[in-house]
Amino acid sequence: MLPIATPLMAGALLVLLKESRRKTRLALSFASVLFQIFVAYQLLLMTTGHMPDLWPQNIAVYLVGDWPAPFGIVLVADRLAAVMLLLCSILGLAALIYSTARWERAGVHFLPLFQLLLMGLNGAFLTGDLFNLFVFFEVLLGASYGLMLHGTGEMRVTAGLHYIATNLAASFLLLIGIALIYGVTGTLNMADLAIRAGQLTGADRRLFEAAAAILGIAFLTKAAAWPLNFWLPNAYGHACAPVAAVFSIMTKVGIYALLRLGSLLLPTGAPAAFGGEWMFPLGVATLIFGAIGILATQQAERLIGYCVIMSSGTLLAALGMPGVALTGPALFYLLTSVLALGAFYMLIEMIERTRSFGADVLAVSLEAFDLDDPESPDRSDDVVGVAIPAAMAFLGMAFFCCALLVAGLPPLPGFVAKLSLLSAALQTSATDTPSLAAWTLVAAVLLSGLAGIIALSRTGIRLFWTAEDIVVPRLRVSEAGSVSLLLLSCIALAIWAGPVMDFLEETALLLDRPQSYIDAVMSHQPVRALGGMP
């Protein structure tokens, strides 16, 4: 319960504290996020066999009202949920550090909204029933509406209104789908739903599949799948940098929901959007759309938005392949892409400060060092370059790392993730010859990687080499540190790629055995007997 209760209480206290008490508010915010990291790590240990007496199936179940499933609210933490919680809290810490430079003072209620956003994300990963999934979606979306409009600017307000309208429509579809499913099955508990859905026949089965299709459309909209992703590049590109960084995980919540429900409904036939016959072609189309977008755009912020779309397309296509051979590599790619894109959004905001239109004397030019003055004592005919200021060196190297991660080039974990995906795709066919779908995925991933190399190289040249009005920006330690935290996390993934990949492949195998999840939820007993129930 702590990943939900901690940011909820912190957000409530932050609302009560006056804006003038900045140090106290920041201390409370950091304490909340750091505690969430600690709790997420402990949950990860709980789901890996460190508490066999308490959780013999390595799935932690908490009955919020002490009512047994499916009658009460259930929170469930398995390996997948614990990984997503840890990823969310690390990304949240980096964004919060970055916001202390100036963004948390650019408007009111930034810190409370930020905590409520984390609460909604954590709740969506932990909930064990569909209705509370909708509730937590609305919590995180409500907070994201305020954060999206945080700051000033006509373009931000315009993009924010498009973002709000689209997500309200998706939430409406989600509510309709949930209502239809409850009307047909009489339950919204995911574990109980997996049991009852397989028993439906005739008209009830057809109505259930129609409801699942509506539900899938809502999740695909939130996952930025084509053609429901037109809102994302502008919305994310015009949000302030720390908010855009946290938003990089929000599309993955839709993918998480598809994966979670798909794994539970797979024995029943995985209807509608939860099956590979829907997810795979939509994923490939999304991947192609994102690749075209990054080649067509000239704005760095929009380019990252299309990179987010490409990552969603890659995940949807990989998870839409038969079996679970690609699920482990897809989860590794999810971790890498979220960390890299979060760092990229914050980095681009710093790089944009290097552009000062109308500047005459620039810090990186020869004039700044008097090296073109004939009477300068430092003049030398053998001068071949000038020292690059530390800020420019950091920005350039960080951009280079982000480009490698997004394009999937060695030696960073983006390469490991894509290589694992491609290797697994070529081994999915039951025959000696890989299937057409596998070759389609390989071609789409390779071509999108090539498009990423071209677009990012072009953008890097434009930002660092060809501009004549570059100035050396003043970077705060908090800004550079937040980007460094995410990039170092990516480097750590590359160093320990073997153990992490083994862990994620085991997670994929557990998802392929949904009965363990169902048994853990349905067999968990209340602390005290209620109404004669055992």
Could you write a compact summary of the structure shown?
This protein has 534 residues and is mainly α. The chain has helices spanning 2-16, 22-46, 79-99, 110-126, 130-148, 154-185, 190-197, 202-222, 232-238, 241-247, 250-265, 276-296, 300-319, 327-351, 390-407, 413-425, 436-464, 477-495, 497-511, 514-522; strands at 60-63, 74-77.
Structure, explained:
A two-stranded antiparallel sheet has the order 1-2. Helix 1 runs antiparallel to helix 4 (110-126) and helix 3 packs antiparallel against helix 18 (477-495). The radius of gyration is 24 Å and the shape is globular. Residues 357-374 and 376-386 have low confidence and may be disordered. It has helices at 2-16, 22-46, 79-99, 110-126, 130-148, 154-185, 190-197, 202-222, 232-238, 241-247, 250-265, 276-296, 300-319, 327-351, 390-407, 413-425, 436-464, 477-495, 497-511, 514-522, and strands spanning 60-63, 74-77. By secondary structure, the chain is mainly alpha-helical.
Q: In oligomeric terms, what are we looking at? A: single chain
- The parts where pLDDT drops under 50 for at least 5 residues are 357-374, 376-386
Kindly report the spatial arrangement of strands forming the biggest sheet.
Answer: 1-2
Number of helices: 20
| SSE arrangement, N to C | HHEEHHHHHHHHHHHHHHHHHH
Radius of gyration: 24 Å
Shape: globular
The average pLDDT score comes to 82
> What structural category characterises the helix and strand content?
mainly alpha
